[in-house]
From TrEMBL:
Residues 212-321 form the Fe2OG dioxygenase domain. The keyword Repeat does not apply. The keyword Isomerase does not apply. InterPro entries: DIOX_N, IPNS-like_FE2OG_OXY, IPNS-like_sf, Oxoglu/Fe-dep_dioxygenase_dom. One of its GO terms (molecular function) is metal ion binding. Keywords: Iron, Metal-binding, Oxidoreductase. SUPFAM superfamilies: Clavaminate synthase-like. This is Fe2OG dioxygenase domain-containing protein. Belongs to the iron/ascorbate-dependent oxidoreductase family. It holds the Pfam family 2OG-FeII_Oxy. The lineage of its organism: Eukaryota, Viridiplantae, Streptophyta, Embryophyta, Tracheophyta.
Length: 376
């Protein structure tokens, strides 16, 4: 984006954030066309190419299968499309359903109640509500400045000085339901870490021992209906920074993943991820791609807006390494480095990784710089 374009867009962007009401606020005020800050900034074709009717669906893994069978299915999924639907996952259906409906209730409560929490501070307090810009103004050449999406971020750690309470999160029922969902998912996350660890052939405990896997950041996304859905993006294409992410969603749909066209989890055609009732969707993130020495794939995904009528709700819980001090190095597990397959990445700390992420944006390039022989 040129300096002049940044200058031109800045007031509209500031006014949008000052409204503190998110994209939902625009929809409530009755917009019938999409404001320019949500539109692509190049003359390129519309954002959403029709996704092909390709016969492809995300694999489903029934976690009640005998463990070796579940591990084999997870290995196949994590090495190919990087995503799988987990069924019979042990998290009570009611806990998931009430988290999703409470996230919807948060975003649909009166404007004054939600705007009290509006904040763009990334590392801020435990709770923040905002439309998170796609990237700093200068990055993401040609992409829209804002997604058609509002997000309530709830942090469950790490806390230096004891856990702050989530008291600012209203309504209280929402706070309780998200807390309950988080505790239920903590157990599920450990289970997934064990299965992925076995899928890597390094023993069920290894990932947990090396990383201490914890889900700290919960993003409750709300994708309002849009008067011109094909002109906006709900979530720009990206890979997740996590070890892995667990997503719960309603039945509206809109998530798409990229088929592996370049052997590295990108470059192929976009396909729809049809919601599977009762399933939790797991995807591999960039940190696990590194730790696995590229045995597992962190695949690009995005969200398109499907509806002029229905809002979509999803909850992403990002599982990250809790071992993240300056002395805790991330890199390929030594067991996965062999003379035939030397380490593809140098070691780095989690803070180093997050700062690369801020600098290079939400795409694969943020881990490329840690590649052995990288020129950066
Ligand atoms: O809403 C979704 O389906 C995906 C959200 C997502 O990709 C993310 O939060 O990283
Ligand atoms: Fe994501």
């Amino acid at each position: 984006m040129s300096a002049a374009e940044v200058h031109d867009a800045a007031p509209a962007l500031a006014a949008f954030h000052e409204s503190r009401a998110g994209v939902r606020g625009l929809v409530e005020s009755g917009v019938t066309t999409v404001p320019p800050i949500f539109l692509t900034r190049t003359a390129s074709p519309p954002l959403q190419q029709e996704s092909p009717a390709a016969a492809f669906s995300i694999p489903t893994v029934d976690l009640s299968l005998p463990r070796p069978d579940a591990v084999a299915l997870i290995r196949a999924a994590a090495r190919s499309c990087g995503f799988f639907h987990a069924t019979n996952h042990g998290v009570p259906a009611g806990v998931v359903a009430s988290a999703v409906s409470t996230a919807r209730a948060f975003h649909e409560q009166p404007r004054a109640a939600r705007s009290a929490l509006y904040s763009l501070e990334p590392g801020g307090g435990a709770v923040a509500y905002s439309t998170i810009p796609n990237a700093p103004l200068q990055q993401q050449e040609g992409a829209p400045l804002l997604p058609w999406r509002d997000t309530l971020r709830v942090r469950f750690g790490p806390w230096e000085d004891g856990e702050p309470d989530l008291g600012r999160l209203r309504p209280a029922a929402c706070r309780d339901a998200l807390r309950e969902y988080h505790s239920a998912l903590a157990g599920f996350g450990k289970e997934v870490a064990g299965l992925l660890s076995e899928a890597l052939g390094v023993g069920a405990e290894r990932l947990e021992e090396a990383m201490r896997v914890e889900g700290w950041l919960m993003a409750c996304h709300y994708y309002p209906p849009c008067p011109e859905p094909a002109r906006v993006v709900g979530s720009l294409e990206h890979t997740d920074p996590s070890l892995f992410t667990v997503l719960a969603q309603d039945g509206v749909g809109g998530l798409q993943v990229r088929r592996d066209g370049d052997g590295d989890g990108g470059g192929g055609e976009w396909v729809d991820v049809e919601p599977v009732a009762g399933a939790l969707l797991v995807n591999i993130g960039d940190v696990l791609k590194v730790v696995s020495n590229d045995e597992l794939k962190s695949v690009e995904h995005r969200v398109v807006i499907k509806s002029t009528q229905d809002a979509r709700v999803s909850i992403a819980l990002f599982f990250n390494p809790a071992r993240r001090d300056k002395s805790d190095l991330l890199g390929p597990l030594p067991e996965l480095v062999t003379p035939e397959k030397p380490a593809l990445y140098r070691s780095f700390t989690f803070p180093e990784f997050m700062s690369s992420r801020r600098e290079y944006g939400h795409s694969r390039s943020s881990i490329e710089r840690f590649k052995v022989n990288s020129s950066q």
